[in-house]
User: Fold this.
Amino acid sequence: MKRCGIAVFIAAMAFVSALAAGEFEDLVKKAGEHYRAGEYRASGETFDLAFKAGEPGKNLYYTAACAWSLAGENGRALELLGKALDAGFLDRKILIEDTDLESLRGGDGWNEMMARLDGRIAAMEAAFPAELAVLESIDLPEPRRDGAVSVEKAMAERRSVRRYSPEPIAVADCSQLLWAAYGITLTREKMPDFVRGGLRTAPSAGARYPLEIYLVAWNVSGLPQGIYRYESNGHKLQKIAAGDFRDPLAAACLDQDWLKGAAVAIVYSAVFERNTAKYGERGRERYVCMDLGHSGENVYLQCGSLGMGTCAIGAFTDLDLKRVIGMTKAEEPLYVMPVGRIEAGNRQ
Ligand SMILES: Cc1cc2nc3c(=O)[nH]c(=O)nc-3n(C[C@H](O)[C@H](O)[C@H](O)COP(=O)(O)O)c2cc1C
Assistant:
């Protein structure tokens, strides 16, 4: 049984359970049950039958390859991994670490497959820009500094929410959420340049503020669909792409299609160099993600105060998410937080 790659497995199965029943879906569910019971050959055979009945995505190809690898059928497993790559599977770390694939590593065809993957990854990485091209700058409305929900109530009721009401949210809601995430709350003369505008709603080690925050908007009244970067200094949105990105966003998040029911997603990345320049490896390993946790919790609590819900997403393919957002070379994606209104009694 795997100790790594489990996110892909869960995502693949969740994707299928979200679909209506049909031959393909039933067979994939059965293949998953065989896998969980340790019946790897039966699992692989059932996946093969399913793939004749319907079109699998990269995560299902990957999961079937795991079953065949555990069943000792390395040739079939590699063939399916090749199909996963062709369908866009990019997660090198999972391929290297997933215990299910142990018997394949170093054997026939493995190095060729990894070379093919590395070529694809190198081409993608070369295409990331050094700087964002900003299409338009939009001033956000002033955020409020007070509200009707106490911080205790917001904490007591905080839950990860994956089901949302279809109604749009307002630009003022986006303003409030982004301010909660990383808004500036104190400016002083003669602050060092690295502070970039002032101290913020979330604490940050050494005030290095390594995070970048994007808003992917698809259901906001008064804001065209698109991808925006939040500029804390001046409380602005910088438009970097126009259009509806919820499908590629959900696909990058290992097919977590529930996120498409939200109105927006707040997407975090970090420029680790801002921290490592001062703190070395400690900045990389500890401080960046501590900063992220502070900011992400602010978003959860602000949602509670606005009658909205969110759910942190850490399961995604880094390169896919980086490409969907159009991040710069220096950034590494860290978190996705879909946000939408919630219907009363629908917290889950
Ligand atoms: C770092 C991190 C990553 C997470 N990734 C996901 C994810 O990819 N998909 C998801 O549905 N939930 C994700 N969650 C939400 C957790 O499942 C959730 O916080 C947990 O079940 C506890 O539930 P609660 O937040 O309602 O208290 C993540 C949470 C954290 C803190």
Summary: Residues 159-160, 162, 256, 311-315 surround flavin mononucleotide (CB under 6 Å). The radius of gyration is 22 Å. The first strand starts at residue 136 and ends at 139.
